[in-house]
Write a structure and sequence with these properties.
The structure is a homodimer of 392-residue chains. The first copy, chain A, is 33% helix and 15% strand. With 392 residues, the first copy, chain A, is an alpha/beta fold. Chains A and B meet through helix 3, helix 4, helix 5, helix 6 and helix 7 of A and helix 3, helix 4, helix 5, helix 6 and helix 7 of B.
Chain lengths: 392, 392
């Protein structure tokens, strides 16, 4: 497998340019947290930047619920950049002139890595609803196999937002000597009852769709589009702030008129927007993956095996931490990041915490924001300085 | 029609005791805001307490999205008290020893008053999805016809929470000389984009259910139970606060175990609770009513006809106002009540505003709370004193 990256590393536009996903078939068995063993599994991934001589400048990007390995750059046949393109590239916060950046699609997802849409070798049919339940630690273990195949011994940083931050935290406990830094953005040590409630409603929306066929819709040549669209709409509202929705849509109408004496149908802009987002999502995401990964979110509880004591948990970590939260994020509120920071401090770890003002809700972790960019870039610049021997 | 109430008016238990719903067939045509005329319509209502000689002590209770005329007391065959029984009764905040209290099920709803499940006399079939779109003002006009049939000239107070508060505000503008007081609880002058978003997801959940049959499920002998349950689950989460859900359910499991090495299904208590609430609701509420009334909520905009100026709107009001909000209510946050209060003050109206600390979210307006009870009771006690000539 090639670790070279064909992009111009000094691209003045700050883009990693054209990228090509790669595929790794991991031949080693992966024992999942549930006890089930995947004899082999496939991981689709992308890399940006160049691995240095000492193979010490690798950064792992962990995706959240619905994204994937395509974190930066563009494909030949698609002008849409990767989901974190604003933050990954030459001269950007995650600087591909200095770091070798790895984006991976995790197992259980639906963008080429082994998941519910893959064929179960034992049956010859798609796994569908029979795909084993997953935990964030399973993603970490699978990512570690990718790491080994890339011949990387230690990540300069493991970085992620939301569920991605959970993976970064789990890395710091499961393989403390395999990362120097964990960047935990808009994340939480465990979901609240309200978080779980929204996830459960989304799952029930999917399961209520007759085309779900108890999760075996692929065998029936059906797709539970209506249920998946609803699930996404529910999620989407919780990723946005009330304030932003007010600014962006307010009570503007897309159709009809609310003056009296009319019976014409009325549609608010926000309704149209949400319906569009739901429908778009249902065209590319897999319903079983949505159920599987929302359950993974619900089940995540960083300190469960540490007697529910996050300080005891983090005492196992050896890396440095950067924790970032966003003011209007009510899905994973700043309080959750403060809990992480408090536990890290109590465990005597090195942690930088920055609370960013943003009106973009949970989605803020994906969006341009100067202060966020400066904080992430500043922190990682120092990491690169240390790797390059510029800083102590 | 009898205005007498057979209850013991000095019931030491503070209950209005057994109650019986009454039915009024309004023979006068009702022109709806959309322009459509209902030639006749039926209203189901209940009364508690006794109308005084001067017919001046009548209080109207306006229900919200999913409730009805049964606000207090119990039916012979059902031990479950009315939805506001804690606040209505002899010696209670809305004191039936002093007030004649009227609870009415509004048109478009599904508890006996004319609505989508009623037969459209023009077709002989249930109205279903063809029931005309409604506005809060239509409920007010219909309530005014009930008022006239009861031979009441002026309400001592019109009281309501949530959508009920919208009716109270609308009463104050449409018929300023027909009420002395408006009590507006956990309400808003208009919904935010986020409010509308949640309502639209609920509506789409209903419409996505194949048993919805484009709203004509009654003709097909079907009921969109799955969609309606989902709609209720979405609503329900937004009525509760994050904090309360954390206290009440946390991450407790109802089934299964999250330790590693298990593949058994896991269910959180909050999942079980929500699913139960959804299923229970779908057994008694009508899907078309849910769509109709959530749209009524979305369309409500107190100051639309007053050049979007709430001060100009409220300048038409003649009654006194009591406005109440609850700290953890994120569906109709205290800011919304403050906006109402600010506009009333700017319009030179008499307004008392009380912000109640509560962890119960939007649902707080339905639940026992000493400070809330004292505020409502204190305000209304003074209203009764004035009616009875005890206070100036």
């Amino acid at each position: 497998m090639s670790l070279e990256n064909s992009n111009d590393r000094r691209d003045p536009e700050g883009s990693v340019g054209h990228v090509t996903p790669q595929k790794l078939v991991v031949e080693q068995p992966l024992r999942l947290a549930c006890g089930i063993v995947l004899p082999t599994h496939t991981l689709v991934y992308e890399t940006y930047g160049t691995l240095n001589q000492s193979r010490s400048n690798a950064v792992l990007i962990c995706h959240a619920l619905s994204s994937n390995h395509h974190a930066a750059g563009v494909y030949e046949d698609d002008s849409k950049p990767g989901w974190w393109d604003h933050y990954i590239g030459p001269g950007k916060a995650i600087d591909t002139n200095r770091f070798f950046v790895v984006g991976v699609n995790n197992i259980g997802s639906c963008f080429g890595s082994t998941g519910p849409t893959s064929v179960n070798p034992e049956t010859g049919d798609p796994w569908g609803a029979n795909f084993p339940p997953l935990r964030a630690r399973d993603w970490v273990e699978s990512q570690k196999l990718l790491m080994e195949s890339l011949n990387i011994d230690c990540w300069a940083a493991v970085i992620g937002g939301s569920l991605g931050g959970m993976q970064a935290m789990r890395w710091s406990l499961e393989h403390p000597d395999k990362l120097l830094n964990a960047v935990v953005i808009a994340s939480s040590m465990k979901l609240t009852a309200q978080n779980i409630a929204f996830n459960e409603i989304a799952r029930r929306a999917i399961k209520s769709d007759p085309d779900f066929c108890d999760g075996h819709y692929l065998l029936e040549d059906k797709v539970p589009l209506r249920g998946l669209a609803l699930a996404r709409m529910i999620g989407h509202v919780t990723y946005l702030s009330d304030e932003l929705m007010g600014q962006k849509f307010g009570r503007d109408l897309r159709m009809g008129d609310l003056i009296q004496g009319k019976t014409d149908p009325v549609e608010f802009q926000i309704e149209s927007y949400l319906n569009y987002q739901g429908d778009k999502f249902s065209d590319f995401f897999d319903a079983n993956s949505y159920i599987l990964i929302t359950k993974m979110l619900d089940y995540f509880d960083l300190a469960r095996e540490y007697n529910h004591d996050p300080v005891a948990a983090f005492s196992h970590a050896m890396c440095n931490f950067l924790v970032i939260s966003f003011s209007s994020d009510w899905r994973f509120s700043p309080s959750r990041s403060q809990e992480i920071t408090d536990a890290l401090i109590a465990a005597g770890k090195s942690v930088s915490y920055i609370a960013i003002d943003s009106e973009h809700g949970h989605d803020a972790f994906l969006l341009p924001n100067q202060r966020y960019q400066d904080a992430l870039g500043g922190y990682l610049s120092r990491v690169a300085d240390q790797l390059e021997g510029v800083a102590p």
